[in-house]
Design goal:
By secondary structure, this protein is an alpha+beta fold. It contains 5 helices and 8 strands; from the N terminus they run βββββαααβββαα. β2 and β3 form a beta hairpin. It starts with a strand and ends with a helix.
């Protein structure tokens, strides 16, 4: 039997039988892993401490013959406890886990694990705007999945001008010039930054709060259109 050790974040937990759970982890080393945690719902289970949501844990598991392994040991490394102190941050935290569990195949790579950890750290930081953590996660995920809209040229391939006003076309996955359009070049610059940088690195961007408030509904709609409905 092959035994592996990895660092992982719980994506999903499913009750099984009287005392067991099936746990889905996203790991840096092994991608998406599903394991049976035997007896984990018993009061004195040694596995229970390392399968908390919004946490990073060191896990050891036996690889199964099919797609379900067996969890051998867990050790909690980091718990992002501030997330559950705010209902909106908690709900988006759940959304992140559900989205990644749905869109990732078993071979989901290290870049997805890094994105999840960075996003959990952002949600866990009280002074960091929740909308920043959300927009950064959704846009980076779109980029990794190959569904990032065009934020450099307009729908016809033309250059975006600093004095222009723009609207977004979901059919073309790009912006187009529009009189009285709600977006301008600074919005598009921020979208590019969000798609390629962790939220924590963008806190000091000039005018961030106002731009985020205006972009948040668009980013969420993009994710529903191109990634997954949640």
């Amino acid at each position: 039997m092959k035994q592996l050790t990895a660092q992982g974040v719980v994506l999903a937990r499913t009750e099984y039988g009287e005392a067991d759970r099936i746990i889905t982890f996203l790991t840096a080393q092994e991608g998406k892993v599903r394991v049976m945690a035997k007896g984990v719902r018993k009061p004195k289970s040694k596995l229970a401490g390392g399968i908390e949501l919004f946490s990073i844990s060191d896990i050891t598991f036996i690889v199964g013959k099919k797609d379900l392994g067996t969890l051998v040991s867990t050790r909690l490394e980091t718990h992002f406890g501030n997330i559950v102190k705010d209902i909106d941050r908690t709900m988006f935290g759940y959304d992140m886990l559900k989205i990644l569990n749905k869109v990732l195949e078993d071979e989901g790579g290290e870049e997805y694990y890094d994105l999840l950890v960075d996003s959990l750290q952002a949600l866990n930081t009280p002074g960091l705007p929740r909308e920043l953590a959300e927009a950064s996660f959704l846009l980076q995920l779109m980029r990794l999945l190959g569904h990032l809209p065009n934020f450099t040229n307009d729908a016809r391939g033309g250059e975006l001008h600093k004095d222009g006003q723009y609207q977004f076309s979901f059919d073309d996955m790009a912006f187009f010039a529009a009189d009285n359009g709600p977006f301008h070049l600074n919005h598009l610059k921020l979208l590019r930054l969000l798609a390629h940088n962790p939220a924590a690195t963008l806190q000091k961007v000039s005018g961030l709060t106002g731009y985020l408030h205006e972009l948040a509904p668009l980013v969420k709609q993009m994710s529903k259109q191109y990634v997954v409905t949640f």
